[in-house]
Amino acid sequence: MAHVRVRKLRQDRCLPLHPQLVALIDADRAAHVDPASPLLLPRENGRPADRHAVTRWVNKAGAAAGLTHIHPHQLRHTLATQAINRGMSLEAIAAMLGHRSLDMTLRYARIASRTVADEYFAVTDKIDALYGPARVHSRPFAGAYRSSSLEPAAAVRRGLANRGAPQAGRWCHRVLG
Length: 177
Known about the structure:
Number of strands: 2
Number of helices: 8
Strand order of the largest sheet: 1-2
Distance between the termini: 36 Å
Shape: elongated
Strand content: 5-15%
């Protein structure tokens, strides 16, 4: 965990950092920063890094990775989107980003159609376990699933898991995408 003073809202918060990032920061500090400096990553002159310096650092790293014109703020959006789509709670993401309202966090985190479908099917599986699978009396989505041995939800799930599955994956993508 890194303790970071945030200037924008004059608040402190602890941020989790990946162990590889901690190792890189430690190596950079050992090579270039006075050990007495309280700053995490100061500029070469020892002063605090401003937003322009951070943008230059991010662009330099992006160029080394073959990416052009990356802005640090894009990384916040990417982090929030990746976190929510991998199961991190909205509240935890809001705390990590320093948001006071979940509405702001929702602007950052884009929930992928696949995540929505996975959560939907997890709920339908629980409902099926409680009450038994639903009987299909009519076929309003004829062609959305092919195998009569599969329930509709299972057919769509199969289509999401296997891009080669005909109809089911396309139907789900069209509806949820």
